[in-house]
Write a structure and sequence with these properties.
By secondary structure, the chain is mainly alpha-helical. It is 53% helix and 4% strand. The two termini are 50 Å apart.
Length: 649
């Protein structure tokens, strides 16, 4: 669907008459030609949109391609926003902040339901195909959790137990990441480090099995057609050297700064969206951002191509037959290398050619465009993940650093450390390796993941040899990001939306001396506490307070000066209060006349210390006084409370 913005596959052969084959993307279409190698520039099978329109004129062809490119992007994004708006409002965003909240114990009704699953699966493909600066990896975690939530309904042992249900959801999160990246171990660690609130050992085993099955099915289906389940499989010919840890640290600093800057800008924009009229028109916002994205992306090949394809080009190493701009080096001949005795450390790559110089300024523009558009895209009312855009920004900067370091090594072959590590005929600097490290650094700065991110990256690329530089860059990015912005992007969105999430990883200082009253005490800016007083409040005052308040219950105290809580009065109808008290209430009637207390088992005066402890263990209400009257009514400890319920909901 992404390649429909550029053209369609014309048929199985150059002279085919079997019509367009819409199920083939550009790469699969060109590979279908028998007897030729795969090249995108020389493929008769792929028909661009101006060829479909029947024109070969230069200006007319470019205009048609430009118009179709924008209109298809607008159609896809508009359809995605409309489906989310009408059928499943919970299908927007990445879903990871909400899943963290749900796994922490909160219930969001309908967020993991069938309609959310169906709409998010459909609109995720439309949003990615529209070319917006977003990814599908975060939404896949939400989709996998929806599947787990729906699946447990067939098993009452798990479906009727919220704790066991959340264990299955944790395993589902692991499967979602495993499918998104082809990284089963990274998925398990992601669920442990980022998503799950409670992760016992049995959940670890279940997550392991779930990720194993998900990755096995993915490998069997082989959706990428490469016989590799990972998304960006690369192989580097040279190892890394110790001096390369310094550029990795620089990339980590860049990732932390960019991550903190992105979090602050995105949160401010989302807060503005919630407060302004912009939030009332989500479909219009999506269409405007899509149009701007298409206009800014069309004239640069590195923003024009799909983001996952861009990341793959930045990650991979240059080969001898590579003709792309990123690999346009002025390579010396073997005779020049053998006869140049003044440069004994010269190796196959040489000075940057005109293609690399052109690619550098295009990558700089792509870095600015991708980073800026992601700020405004993440948080719109469509499915939007953050992994791929963050990796793209980091990969672009990492590739630029790699090219610069490579040229420094070429122009200074006799200086340390290049004269020690770079020998003849060896590529000691691999720009694609720095792109991989930069992608991990920026993603760590945005999400603040560490262990799971490193594992995901080496599973994603197959670069197990480079795990130490990845660890160095990731930890540096996290430290720098934490110093500039305390929380990651998902935690900040939890705080922005006001979800009741208690972070079990957050350290609370002075817990030994912290009293409950210090936490419950209202702030100076808060309004006074709304309480019911026993002696001086009338039924009219209670009814007015309940009707004008959004609270469902009020504490009952003796006096405002001594706010010792007796019981908690809940809101119901006045008729219910009259029925419980047995007489008609009047507006000026004191509140204590409407309170009806009775013994739980026996009179308070007859209770001893041992019996009192027994009643307390049984969960009987405990009130601060010890008084009982001779009529069997009680206003003291160990009495089951029956309080009149006031005012309508």
């Amino acid at each position: 669907m992404t390649d429909l913005r550029y053209g369609v596959c014309g048929g199985s052969s150059p002279n085919s008459t079997d019509g367009p084959q819409l199920w083939f993307n550009r790469e699969q279409c060109c590979w279908a030609v028998e007897g030729i190698s795969y090249t995108l520039d020389d493929c008769d099978q792929w028909l661009t949109n101006f060829q479909n329109a029947g024109t070969n004129d230069g200006f007319g062809a470019s205009l048609i391609l430009f118009i179709v490119f924008i209109w298809i992007a607008l159609i896809f994004s508009g359809l995605a926003a409309t489906l989310v708006r009408v059928f499943a409002p919970y299908a927007c965003g990445s879903g990871i902040p909400e899943i963290k909240t749900i796994l922490g114990g909160f219930i969001i009704k309908g967020y993991l339901g069938f309609w959310t699953l169906l709409i998010k699966t459909t609109t995720m493909m439309l949003a990615v195909s529209a070319g917006l600066s977003l990814g599908k990896e975060g939404p896949l975690v939400h989709i996998a959790t929806c599947c787990g939530n729906l699946f447990v309904r067939f098993f009452p042992k798990y479906g009727h137990n919220e704790a066991k249900k959340r264990e299955i959801m944790s395993a589902s999160c692991a499967a979602g990441v495993a499918v998104a990246f082809g990284a089963p171990m990274g998925g398990i660690l992601f669920s442990l480090e980022e998503a799950s609130y409670y992760f016992p050992l049995k959940t670890l085993y279940r997550s392991f099995f779930c990720a194993l099955v998900a990755t096995s099915v993915l490998s069997f289906i082989n959706p990428l057609g490469t016989d590799h389940a990972v998304l960006f499989y690369v192989e580097y010919k040279s190892p890394w050297y110790m001096f390369e840890l310094i550029p990795c640290i620089i990339l980590g600093v860049f990732g932390g700064i960019v991550g903190a800057l992105f979090i602050k800008c995105n949160i401010e924009w989302c807060r503005y969206r919630k407060k302004s009229t912009l939030g009332k028109y989500p479909i219009t916002e999506v269409l405007v951002v899509t149009g701007i994205t298409a206009l800014l992306s069309y004239f640069n090949e590195y923003t024009w191509m799909p983001t996952n394809q861009l990341i793959y080009q930045l990650f991979r190493d240059c080969s001898k037959t590579d003709v792309t701009d990123l690999c346009d080096y002025e390579k010396p001949s073997l005779n020049d290398i053998h006869t140049d005795n003044s440069n004994p450390h010269q190796y196959p790559f040489a000075s940057a050619g005109p293609g690399i110089k052109t690619a550098i300024w295009k990558l700089v523009m792509a870095l600015i465009v991708k980073g800026t558009l992601t700020v405004f895209t993440f948080g719109m009312k469509i499915p939007a993940g953050l992994f791929i855009p963050s990796m793209a920004v980091g990969a672009i900067f990492g590739r630029l650093v790699g090219i610069a370091l490579q040229q420094i090594a070429y122009n200074n072959p006799n200086r340390y450390p290049f004269n020690e590590y770079c020998t003849a005929y060896e590529d000691c600097i691999t720009p694609g390796f720095y792109a991989m490290v930069g992608a991990a650094a920026v993603l760590a700065g945005v999400t603040r993941m560490t262990v799971s991110l490193v594992v995901i990256m080496f599973e994603l690329t197959g670069g197990l040899l480079y795990i130490v530089p990845l660890m160095v860059a990731t930890m540096t990015a996290k430290w720098v990001g934490d110093s500039l912005c305390k929380h990651g992007i998902y935690d900040e969105h939890i705080r922005l939306n006001g979800y009741p999430f208690l972070d079990n990883k957050q350290e609370t200082h002075s817990q030994q001396s912290l009293a409950a009253g210090d936490i419950m005490k209202p702030r100076p800016s808060d309004p006074p506490l709304q309480v019911l007083t026993l002696d001086d409040m009338t039924f009219e005052q209670v009814s007015t307070m309940a009707q004008n308040s959004t609270f469902n219950g009020f504490p009952l105290v003796l006096d405002r000066d001594v706010p010792t809580v007796w019981v908690r009065a809940q809101k119901r109808s006045p008729a219910g209060a009259e029925k419980r008290t047995g007489h008609q209430s009047e507006c000026g009637q004191p509140i204590q006349d409407l309170l009806h207390f009775r013994y739980s088992l026996r009179r308070v005066a007859e209770l001893g210390t041992d019996s009192a402890e027994t009643e307390t263990n049984r969960g009987v209400e405990s009130l601060p006084n010890h008084r009982a009257d001779p009529h069997g009514h009680c206003a003291g400890r160990f009495c089951e409370t029956r309080v009149a319920h006031f005012a309508g909901n």
